[in-house]
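Researcher: We plan to redesign the surface later, but first we want a full-length starting point. Tokens attached.
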């Protein structure tokens, strides 16, 4: 399938940005709980949060490629495109786990840099999986700025989440929403720089056009991934309400108690939080 152009490309770009936001929003919600309760106890939240961020970066770029209106038929190598997503989820989980297990500002900065590097590698891998010919010509300057943007978004957005003391006035949903917007904006700007660095618009053919056509991978990135991310956000909201109701019941029975649990399809039912 040929990439769309004109007005449709604008709509696809907006869809790409929305996917990046959904991934960032899900990630910051899980990051908050991981920061308070630790990745060992909440290992499911660790995997889901890291996977949401990696999938958001991956799917956002796939849709952005479709939005460019390329002159050739785009295709992807199945092992490369899905392998990059899997490896990104594993690497991101390791980095986020390290950052929340060793919670100090120096480790968090180093983890933000490593997570940004993982995000950049994912973006490069997505374009590499197209098999564009005569060949992508990578420019180092846009790639460095792309890494800087990812690092800035992860460091600033992450600090806005983990810097708020539990139950304080700063520990608000609006603050986490702002953190997700900052992170998503950096992801979108970063992928534009990666596309510029690659010279994809100067290519004439995709060697993998018959392996996995653009319409198939766009369906996964533009429908399956957003649906999963929305389900994760709904699950987080359901857990928050369940914990709030349980906390009220516990306070009535024991005024000194301030813990709660929430049932979740995705997360450990024994985990708890204060919001």
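Model: Full-length starting sequence:
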């Amino acid at each position: 399938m040929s990439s769309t152009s004109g007005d449709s490309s604008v709509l696809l770009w907006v869809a790409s940005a929305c996917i990046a936001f959904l991934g960032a929003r899900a990630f910051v919600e899980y990051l908050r709980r991981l920061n308070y309760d630790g990745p060992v106890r909440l290992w499911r939240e660790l995997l889901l949060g890291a996977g949401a961020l990696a999938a958001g970066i991956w799917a956002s770029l796939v849709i952005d490629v479709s939005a460019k209106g390329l002159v050739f038929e785009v295709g992807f190598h199945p092992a490369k495109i899905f392998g990059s997503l899997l490896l990104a989820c594993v690497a991101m989980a390791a980095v986020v786990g390290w950052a929340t297990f060793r919670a100090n500002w120096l480790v968090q900065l180093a983890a933000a840099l490593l997570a940004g590097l993982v995000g950049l590698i994912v973006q490069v891998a997505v374009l590499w999986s197209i098999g564009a010919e005569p060949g992508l010509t990578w420019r180092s300057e846009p790639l460095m700025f792309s890494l800087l943007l990812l690092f800035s978004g992860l460091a600033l957005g992450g600090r806005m989440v983990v810097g708020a003391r539990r139950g304080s006035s700063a520990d608000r949903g609006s603050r986490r929403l702002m953190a997700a917007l900052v992170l998503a904006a950096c992801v979108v700007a970063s992928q534009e720089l990666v596309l510029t660095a690659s010279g994809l618009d100067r290519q004439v053919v995709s060697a993998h056009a018959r392996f996995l056509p653009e319409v198939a991978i766009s369906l996964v990135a533009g429908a399956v991934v957003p649906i999963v991310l929305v389900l994760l956000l709904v699950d987080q909201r359901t857990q928050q309400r369940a914990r709030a109701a349980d906390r009220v019941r516990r306070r009535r029975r024991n005024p000194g108690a301030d813990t709660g649990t929430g049932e979740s399809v995705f997360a450990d039912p024994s985990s708890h939080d204060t919001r």
